[in-house]
Each structure stands twice: as structure tokens, then as C-alpha cells.
Specification:
The structure holds two protein chains of two kinds.
Chain A lengths: L2 H8 L9 H17 L15 H4 L14 E5 L2 E7 L6 E2 L3 E5 L5 H5 L9 H9 L4 E5 L4 E9 L6 E10 L4 E8 L6 E10 L4 E8 L6 E10 L4 E8 L5 E9 L5 E10 L4 E10 L5 E10 L4 E10 L6 E11 L5 E10 L4 E10 L3 H9 L4 H12 L1 H5 L4 H16 L3
Parallel strand pairs in A: 2-6, 5-7, 6-8, 7-9, 8-10, 9-11, 10-12, 11-13, 12-14, 13-15, 14-16, 15-17, 16-18, 17-19, 18-20
Antiparallel strand pairs in A: 1-2, 3-4, 4-5
Helix pairs in contact in A: 2-5, 6-7
Chain B lengths: L2 H12 L12 E2 L7 H10 L4 H15 L24 E2 L14 H10 L3 H7 L3 E6 L2 E5 L2 H6 L3 E4 H7 L1 H7 L10 H9 L4 E5 L9 E6 L10 E6 L4 E9 L7 E3 L2 E6 L4 E9 L11 E11 L5 E8 L4 E4 L2 E4 L5 E10 L4 E4 L2 E4 L5 E10 L4 E10 L7 E10 L5 E10 L5 E9 L3 H9 L4 H17 L4 H15 L5
Parallel strand pairs in B: 3-7, 6-8, 7-9, 8-11, 9-12, 10-13, 11-13, 12-14, 13-15, 13-16, 14-17, 15-18, 16-19, 17-20, 18-21, 19-21, 20-22, 21-23, 22-24
Antiparallel strand pairs in B: 1-2, 3-4, 5-6
The chains are: A alpha/beta, B alpha/beta.
Chain lengths: 408, 483
């Protein structure tokens, strides 16, 4: 079934489909799909994707029965369970959670900054069927943990979340994606950081082989704010991590990091894009990948420095280790610079594990496998040791051990 | 920016293009536009065999179905291929002059103005020059000496007549006519260029050099160069360009193919200083060049060195296909853009064989309102065991109206191959400037020194004959331009 028929057939289950403006907007999107037809040749961000899953999908969505739970177990700490992309409303003097359906659509539909030719974002806008908005009120320091649960097989979830950190607030956000059923989630996170606010965003992805996860985020930072994102991808199914960040006012900072562990026939597509639109901003994009068996990965990074963004510091780093003959890694670290007083750089390496290091360890009596495992751990040690949350650090260590046990 | 910088920027922007002059010579050309008749006309003029004409027509039919590649970071008005002359040869050149005294004195004068007096060069420089004036080779010197060694160095037109076997075997083998629209265009209408064949085991004793020069308004130049280095041979080839000042954009779509067989080495150096357009971005050459080398045999090596300072639009990616085991590809580049120049240049290293190595050093300097892009691809195919690549691309920005961009593509399909890539973008270091000025250098001298240091890694790769010219070019480009 093509996208248009699919949409028309399921229209009544899709959010905002009664709204005239939204209808117009969606008709335009359908036109884009019709004209472009996911042209793989001219759109490198579609590299390695099995498009069939995403074009000819069967739309299926279940409205969750039980309302999701919000626990205020410790002060300033919240646990949210999002079921099929939805969670119920909640309000206190520190945070406010609302359903996306209660929002004014125009508020978040006009997001011109996100790349227009990102088909998956367009699909998300077209089939939107879940999502929520979380506001952290002024000068609060909050911890939130979100567990994403999907209740049935073969669901197609198109979810849009808004996160707003008001002035002076600080949020520690942990998101877990651990699903064992064969569903597809297409999630768009729109994150707004007001003056002097801070968001530490952790994403732990660990899905089963037939679960597809497409996660796109768009963050914008105002004066003196900092957005830090760390993605840990242990999934055995397809994952697409595309993260766009805009530094719109002076002295703001974006730090986008990720590690992916791939094996078997799995693929993963990753992209980070930082736009410097004001002076004195800093950005950092670091992705590391370990690829085993027949796995494939792509990583696109891009630093765009506008003409006014003087005194910019923008760094990129991409590192890949190929453990098998059949694994492949493609990286494209891009710099687009229109201001002269900048310090920008990128580095990219792809290769096997250092033979000399293996030799060193083996000469001290270690087996080859043990040496390999130690070197993989040390490759990502910097990222793992920088996690200041003990509980999270433990979770990730466990997953790493599980991944390493399959390395031969 | 301080006032001194602004002043120097200002004086530079008023610097006029030194080599902008026109030699008035009667032209003989077909009608404007591209169709089968044009191609037949060219083929007839060049007295070509039928198989060559057929080859051209086949390329033309491919071109008709193709669109220009659009992925480069360049903006320019649509090229009207029907508004271009595809062949222009000074009259009476069907019969080649036997020696320099038979050459039109005006031509000789042109070269003298450019600083390459043929007669002097013949004696002093020890360089055999195959000069291309518009589309026909004027004179080929040093031929006899090269012939003794069995080296063939002639125009491609002559090679088609005299060495059809080599042409049939190698022409289009590295750049197939259907590769992209500019290669198809070139294959259909190429008029001249050089042909070099180095026999087994011969080390070419001198630098072979061609001085291309575009004359005649509205004439696109479509050279085709083919260099074949047979087993165990070595050749160093120089190419350099300056063009007279014109207001109409001139199209230039050359194809250069290099083939290195077992243990052979080819070194190809370019200094390109075509008319870049005036300070408002009017005029200038559109330069769409396809250069590709094939390391066909074991232990072969191809090395590209380029200094790009001219042209309104530069679209150029000298590439290496490293097919033979242990083969080596190198790319050294300095690209300077000023005013409204746009350059999208880089390289492509495709590692196919085992133990292949490649090295890329690229230096981009943007001034004025220019846009300078490095675009490079390094790919390791599945069988490229123990392949190795090192890439370094640095950009320097002078002024805040220009842009510097880096777009590398890195693809590894082999787990024993190692790839390293690094890039940086910055302005001229204030501390270094301060240090130099403290020691009594003027602002401009200091900048010149720093920029020369920035480019040194590449400039030192040039052969002696070019190194001087290139350094001169770089400092001319910087004269009064930087702060």
C-alpha cells in the first residue's frame, strides 16, 4: 500500500486530522513522497536502510488501556512509563506533563529548521498518533526516567514529544527503549532550552532484532544553556539516530555523543548536525562504533557555522572498529564554515583493533579473545567513565558484557 | 579587523589580473552549438579515422541523455551548450610548422608575455613543451631526444593517427565516456591535448610539460590527455594555465587519464591560474575537469599535485584507483579562492588491491567573497587488505564574507584497513602574527610567511620548474590581500 492510501485509510486514528491547516500541511507532505519516492541514489541518508519496512508498512495502533504511572518516589525525581507513546497528564509546581493532542498543533508543526528532505520526520508528521509534552518550570532541578513500552506486535508508533526547559532549570533525562516485540517506533523529540538551562539526555536503546527504532531529535539552545546528549545503542534491530541541534543565542553549548554496538546483520544510521547561529558557542560531536559480523553503519556529522557565529568552537570525532571482514562503516564528517574567527576540526578513523596492543596483552599471557575484549572496553572507556549516574553506569556495563560475550 | 587589514584588503582587491590580454588571430571555427554535425566537423578537421568518429558520436548520444552533476557546492547560471564554439584553430594550422620559426610570431609573443619563451626554454629549462594554443598543438619540442628513448610525447590528435592501437586500448578506459555528463561531453568534442607513452623500464629524463592557454572568446576548451607508463617506467608531467581576460564565461571540460602499469610511477603536477573573473564576480573560466589515474599494476604509484588559484568555478577531483597490490596514490593540493571564486575540489581514492596506500594533503585558503570546498572520498573495498589512508585537510579563512567547507566521505568495508582523517578550520593565528611582527616583519610579510608555511607541505611536492612559479602565484594571491 502506498503512503497516500495508507494515510487516507487510517486518517481517523491519526492526531489532528480534523484540523484544516494540518490537512493542508499533510497534503504537501504526501506530494513530497509522491515526487521523491525515497530516491536512494540522491539521498545518502537513506544508505543501507531497508526501505520496504517503512514505505509499505501496515498501519496499526492501539490506544493504551491503562494510564501510565508517574511516581514521585524521591523528591525531584520522576518515573514515567510511556505506553505506546502516550502518557497521562500530570502537574505539580515543578513539572507539567500534557498529551500532545491537547497542544496547539501550529505550535510545533512549524518547525522549519529541521531538514526538509528528512523523509522520516515527514512520515512522523503525517501519521502522528502519540506523544506528550514535558515542561520543567523555572529554576527547578529535576530527574526524569522514561521507560518506553509497546504493548503489542506490529504496532506502528509515530510519536512526537516536546521538552521545554524553562529559564534556569536543569533536567536529567534518562530514556529507555527496550522492546521485544516486532514494532516500529518513529519518534521525534523537540527540545527547547531557555536561558541558562541545562539538559542531560541519556538514551539507552536495546531492542530485539525485529524492532525498528527511528529517533530524531531537534534541540535549540538559548543564551548560556547546555544540551548534552548521550546515546547508547545496543539494539539488535535497526536504529536510526538523527540529532539536530541549533545554537541560537550566545554562549550556548551542544554536546552530542553516541556509541553503537552492532552485530549479525544489523544496521544503524547515525547523524548529528549542529548549527551555530550565534557567537561564542561550543559544540562537540563524538560517535564511536563497534561493528561485528555483517553489520553496517553510517555516521554523518555536520558543523555549520553561520557568518555571525564568531568565536565558535566546534569539534567532531568519529571512530569505528571493524571486528569482521564483512562489516562496513561509512562516515562523512562535514564542516561548513562562513565565519573566520573559529576553531573547528574533525577527525575520523576506521580500522581494526591495534595489533601491537593485542600483542602486548598476549605477551603477558592473555588469550586473544580476552585481549580483544579489554581493548574494546578501553576504546569506549572515556565515554563510559564519564557517566556520573551509578545506576545507569551499571546498566550499561551489563549490556556491554553481554555484547562482548558474543565477540569471538 | 584592524584598519591596516582593511587597507591591505582594499589594495589587493584592486589588483588587476596580470595576464589579461588577447592575441588577435583569425579563427576558423564551425557554427556555434553542439550536434552531430559539429562532431563530424571536428573529426574531419582533425583528419580522424572512422572508428574515432564513431566513438565520439557514441559519447555524444550518451551525453544527450545525461544531466550535469549537481551535488557540488557551486552556484552558476545554466550552461547553454548551444552557445559555445566547439572548435577553434588558428588558420593554416592543419599543416604543422616544422620548427619554431614557422610559428605565427603573435603566438610566440603571447608565450613570451606569459613568461615561457619557447626558444629559451628549449635551451635553458631542458623541458619539452607541447604547447596548446586554443585547440591545436603549436609546436612540440625536444621530440627527437625523447624518441631516442622510445618515449612518445605528442598531441592526442597525432597519436590517434600514429598510434591507434594504444589509443584504442586505453582511451576511455579510466574515465568511461558515460561516467558523467562532462566526461561524455569531452569524449564527444575533445580537440586536443597530450599523449604520453613511456616504454618498459624507461625513466623519462626530463619533466614533460604542456602550457594550456585559452584564447578566442566563447570557445570552450576540451582537452584530452592520456598518459601511459609501462612496466617499471617513470614520468613527471607538468601542466599550467593562464588565460586572457574575458567577460563572457568560458567553459572548460578537460579529461585526463593516467595509467600506471607494474612498478611504474606517474607524477602529475598542475598550476592553474586561469582568469578568475573580476572583483564583482563577472566573467572567468568555468573549469569542470575530470582527472583520474589507474594504478593498474603491482607496486605502481600515481601522485597528483595541484595549485589552484584561478577560474571562476573549479570543479575538479583528481582521483586514483588503486587496483594493483601495493600501489600508492597521493594527492597534494593548494586551493586559493578570492573575490567571487568558487572552488569545489578534492580527490577520490578507491582502494581495491592489497596493501594499497594513499595520502591526501589538502590546503584551502578563502578570501573575499569566495567559497572553497574540499570534497574527498576514500573507500576501501572488501579485498583491500591492510590498505592504509591518511588524510589531512586544513582550511584558512581570511575575512568574514567567505566560506570554507570540508566534505569527506569515508567508507571502509575491510577490517584490516586503517583510515585516518583529520581536518581543521581556523583563521591566521594571532600569536604567530604577533611573533613575526615583533621581529620586524610587516603585517603583510608576516601573513605571507605564515601562509607559505601553511602550504609548504604541498608546494614542496612540486617539481623544481613549477615550485618557483607556484610560490610566486601564492604570494601574488596574497599580496596585499591578507590581514
Amino acid at each position: 500500500m502506498n503512503i497516500q492510501d495508507n494515510y487516507l485509510k487510517n486518517k481517523k486514528n491519526i492526531f489532528f486530522s480534523q484540523n484544516k491547516d494540518v490537512q493542508n500541511h499533510r497534503e504537501k507532505l504526501i506530494d513530497i513522497f509522491e515526487n521523491d519516492r525515497f530516491d536512494k541514489k540522491n539521498n545518502e541518508s537513506l544508505k543501507n536502510i531497508n526501505l520496504k519496512n517503512f514505505i509499505d508498512f501496515k498501519y496499526k495502533y492501539l490506544i493504551p488501556e491503562e494510564t501510565s504511572v508517574i511516581n514521585n518516589n524521591q523528591e525531584n525525581s520522576y518515573s514515567i512509563v510511556s505506553v505506546n507513546g502516550q502518557c497521562s497528564s500530570y502537574k505539580d509546581d515543578k513539572i507539567e506533563i500534557t498529551r500532545i493532542l491537547d497542544e496547539d498543533y501550529n505550535d510545533f508543526s512549524k518547525n522549519h529548521t529541521i531538514e526538509k528532505n528528512d523523509h522520516f520526520v515527514n512520515l512522523n508528521s503525517l501519521f502522528l498518533n502519540s506523544g506528550f509534552k514535558i515542561v520543567i518550570k523555572k529554576n527547578n532541578n529535576i530527574k526524569i526516567k522514561i521507560s518506553n513500552i509497546i504493548t503489542d506486535d506490529h504496532l506502528t508508533i509515530f510519536q512526537k514529544n516536546n521538552y521545554i526547559c524553562e529559564e534556569g532549570s536543569s533536567l536529567n533525562l534518562i530514556e529507555e527503549y527496550e522492546n521485544k516485540n516486532n514494532s516500529t517506533s518513529n519518534i521525534l523529540n523537540v527540545i527547547k532550552l531557555d536561558k541558562n538551562s541545562q539538559l542531560n539526555h541519556f538514551l539507552i536503546q536495546d531492542n530485539s532484532p525485529n524492532h525498528n527504532l527511528i529517533i530524531t531529535s531537534h534541540s535549540s539552545c538559548r543564551k548560556d544553556s547546555t544540551y548534552t546528549q548521550k546515546v547508547y545503542n545496543f539494539s539488535e534491530g535497526y536504529v536510526r539516530n538523527f540529532h539536530y541541534s541549533e545554537l541560537i543565542e550566545a554562549n550556548s553549548e551542544a554536546d552530542l555523543q553516541g556509541i553503537f554496538f552492532l552485530k549479525d546483520n544489523n544496521t544503524s544510521n547515525n547523524k548529528t548536525f549542529v548549527k551555530h547561529l550565534a557567537e561564542d558557542c561550543k559544540s562537540n560531536q563524538v560517535y564511536k562504533g563497534i561493528l561485528n559480523d555483517r553489520s553496517k553503519a553510517t555516521y554523518f556529522s555536520n558543523t555549520h557555522v553561520d557568518q555571525v557565529a564568531q568565536k565558535t568552537e566546534g569539534y567532531q570525532l568519529s571512530k569505528g572498529i571493524l571486528l569482521s571482514d564483512n562489516a562496513s562503516f561509512f562516515s562523512k564528517p562535514e564542516l561548513k564554515i562562513y565565519a573566520d574567527d573559529v576553531k573547528c576540526s574533525h577527525g575520523s578513523t576506521i580500522g581494526p583493533i591495534d595489533e601491537n596492543a593485542i600483542f602486548y596483552l598476549r605477551s603477558r599471557g592473555m588469550s586473544k579473545i580476552a585481549a580483544t575484549k579489554i581493548l574494546i572496553s578501553s576504546f569506549i572507556n572515556e565515554e563510559l567513565s564519564s557517566i556520573d549516574n551509578e545506576q545507569m553506569s551499571e546498566i550499561i556495563q551489563k549490556k556491554l558484557v553481554r555484547y562482548l560475550s558474543k565477540v569471538k | 579587523m584592524n584598519s591596516e587589514t582593511l587597507n591591505t584588503l582594499d589594495t589587493y582587491s584592486k589588483n588587476k589580473y596580470k595576464y589579461g590580454f588577447v592575441t588577435e588571430i583569425d579563427d576558423e571555427r564551425p557554427k556555434k552549438g553542439l550536434n552531430e554535425d559539429t562532431i563530424k566537423f571536428i573529426s574531419l578537421k582533425k583528419n580522424e579515422p572512422v572508428w574515432m568518429l564513431e566513438w565520439r558520436l557514441k559519447a555524444y548520444s550518451k551525453w544527450k541523455k545525461m544531466k550535469e552533476p549537481k551535488w557540488a557546492n557551486l552556484s552558476f547560471p545554466e550552461i547553454d551548450y548551444q552557445d559555445i564554439y566547439y572548435y577553434s584553430a588558428p588558420k593554416g594550422f592543419e599543416k604543422k610548422p616544422k620548427d619554431l620559426s614557422e610559428v605565427d610570431p603573435k603566438l610566440i609573443e603571447t608565450y613570451n608575455k606569459l613568461g615561457i619563451p619557447l626558444e629559451e626554454q628549449k635551451v635553458l629549462a631542458g623541458v619539452a613543451v607541447d604547447v596548446v594554443f586554443d585547440s591545436v598543438s603549436v609546436a612540440t619540442t625536444y621530440k627527437g631526444e625523447l624518441e631516442k628513448l622510445g618515449i612518445i610525447f605528442c598531441s592526442i590528435g597525432e597519436a590517434i593517427q600514429k598510434h591507434p592501437d594504444l589509443i584504442k586500448k586505453y582511451l576511455g578506459s579510466v574515465i568511461p565516456p558515460g561516467d558523467h555528463s562532462f566526461s561524455a561531453l569531452n569524449s564527444a568534442v575533445f580537440t586536443d591535448g597530450s599523449f604520453v607513452y613511456i616504454p618498459v623500464g624507461v625513466k623519462c629524463p626530463m619533466e614533460l610539460s604542456t602550457y594550456f592557454r585559452i584564447n578566442a572568446e566563447n570557445t570552450g576548451q576540451f582537452e584530452r590527455t592520456l598518459i601511459i607508463a609501462d612496466k617499471g617506467s617513470y614520468v613527471s608531467y607538468l601542466e599550467g594555465c593562464t588565460a586572457p581576460k574575458r567577460d563572457d564565461n568560458q567553459l572548460h571540460a578537460a579529461n585526463v587519464e593516467l595509467i600506471a602499469l607494474e612498478d611504474a610511477e606517474i607524477k602529475y603536477s598542475t598550476v592553474q591560474n586561469w582568469y578568475p573573473g573580476d572583483e564583482n564576480g563577472k566573467g572567468g573560466i568555468y573549469n569542470f575537469v575530470t582527472k583520474r589515474g589507474l594504478c593498474a599494476g603491482k607496486n605502481s604509484k600515481i601522485s597528483w599535485t595541484q595549485v589552484e588559484t584561478g577560474s571562476a568555478i573549479t570543479w575538479k577531483y583528481p582521483s586514483c584507483i588503486l587496483k594493483g597490490d601495493n600501489s600508492i596514490g597521493e594527492f597534494y593540493s593548494v586551493a586559493i579562492t578570492n573575490n567571487f571564486q568558487q572552488a569545489d575540489t578534492g580527490t577520490k581514492m578507491t582502494h581495491i588491491g592489497k596493501n594499497t596506500k594513499s595520502k591526501i594533503i589538502s590546503k584551502g585558503i578563502s578570501l573575499g567573497n569566495s567559497q572553497n570546498t574540499y570534497r574527498g572520498e576514500v573507500s576501501f573495498l572488501r579485498k583491500a587488505e591492510k590498505a592504509r589512508n591518511y588524510t589531512q585537510c586544513d582550511s584558512l579563512l581570511v575575512g568574514n564574507q567567505c566560506g570554507a567547507h570540508t566534505v569527506p566521505y569515508i567508507d571502509s568495508k575491510n577490517n584490516t584497513a586503517v583510515i585516518e582523517h583529520e581536518a581543521s578550520t581556523s583563521k591566521i593565528n594571532e600569536d604567530q602574527l604577533y611573533y613575526c611582527r615583533q621581529r620586524g616583519l610587516s603585517h603583510e610579510e608576516a601573513v605571507s610567511l605564515i601562509v607559505n608555511g601553511f602550504c609548504k607541505q604541498v608546494l614542496q611536492e612540486l617539481p623544481m620548474e613549477f615550485a618557483v612559479e607556484a610560490q610566486k602565484l601564492v604570494s601574488i594571491s596574497l599580496e596585499g590581500s591578507v590581514g
